[in-house]
Design brief:
The structure is a homodimer. Chain A has helices at residues 24-32, 45-55, 83-96, 119-125, 149-160, 177-182, 194-199, 208-218, and strands at residues 6-10, 37-40, 61-63, 68-70, 78-79, 101-102, 110-113, 131-135, 140-144, 167-171, 185-188, 202-203. The longest helix of chain A has 14 residues, at 83-96. Chain A is of the alpha/beta class. The first copy, chain A, has 8 helices and 12 strands. Chain A has 2 domains: 6-79 and 147-218, Rossmann fold (3-Layer(aba) Sandwich), CATH 3.40.50.1000; 83-144, Hypothetical Protein Ta0175, Chain: A, domain 2, CATH 3.90.1070.10. At the A-B interface, helix 1 and helix 2 of A face helix 1 and helix 2 of B.
Chain lengths: 222, 222
Amino acid sequence: MFEPKAIAIDIDGTITDRRRALNLRAVEALRKLKIPVILATGNAPCFAKAVAKVIGVSDIVICENGGVVRFEYDGEDIILGDKEKCMKALEVLGKHFSVELLDFEYRKSEVCLRRNFDINRAREILRGFDVKLIDSGFAYHISDSKVSKGKALEFIADRLGIFPKEFAVLGDSENDIEMFRVAGFRIAVANADIRLKELADLITPSNDGDGVVEALEFLGLI
Amino acid sequence: MFEPKAIAIDIDGTITDRRRALNLRAVEALRKLKIPVILATGNAPCFAKAVAKVIGVSDIVICENGGVVRFEYDGEDIILGDKEKCMKALEVLGKHFSVELLDFEYRKSEVCLRRNFDINRAREILRGFDVKLIDSGFAYHISDSKVSKGKALEFIADRLGIFPKEFAVLGDSENDIEMFRVAGFRIAVANADIRLKELADLITPSNDGDGVVEALEFLGLI
């Protein structure tokens, strides 16, 4: 059986339902773990730090799809992505679509947009811009090509003195793919994107939070 | 029996424990209510909106001890307090104490400080500055004198077309006092500040979240 030294887990669609409300059974289960639980989200640092605090897990968070990492609640944002690059891409997208910015002031490494345009056409338009367009299932993100939840996980693992392969990771959407590529054990919840399920070591029978509980039971952690 | 048309409830120390982790029984109970549940916190808007979202209650929040209110998750901050006034007071305090700013960039109407100085002496120093110093139990806040959770509650009630007296309110600390003064039914959890208990219609037998569940049962809401 895989014995993880730490867990990295996506928030929206993995510990929460479609309305983004926490699954309380999953929260209860995560609190029981004796190893660090690191939230890894596409959301902004101030969202991630708040949610980690009220869930009651480690203060270490991966935010903005890996563009920012944090180690302490009152600590600094460590910015790994270049927001300027994303702003240039936004300017171009704005000529083709009527884009709607979300949480603009709170994002430090990327630009977040409402899901109201054709993302495939947008990807064509942004070819050559050194950015990627991510669909988290809750918003579209223009993100620096060089960042990902996977790279952020490597950054954190290094700081904690453990190997990325010693992590178990849980997720539901395409922004979790790179995190799946570097971790030692990969869990996709039942509602996960098919591309994530293809990389998974375990696909849970149940959706989101109930699936998280099943996975932690499978690993013998609860 | 008092039949509230809405609930306003403090977060830290009321729905959370001392480590600021949510009481899951309280969350479950709040989700069952058929009336709007409005979180009222000393914390910053981005914290409040995140916590309201993951708890799964109304997106309406009172933040920064009443200095900011919000009605929608992706909506605007409505700023009721004057941060400039608080900054002038901060400058003076900085000459007497080695103050440590918390969450500075995220606060829009006030200044939040670590609890590492003598608040009574600080209150003496700031006499005549048209600001108040609030102890939320988790931080000290320099707040515009004209704002309070009570005034913010009146603002929200007006917008919702109900009277403040139709609210039941729940809290634990001195920054809940003004909210208690305007509401129709006041509940102090067992761990509440003595000044709050003196104003309460109901003091719960249990601390924080367990007390919240007791209060909602008492009101026949769950």
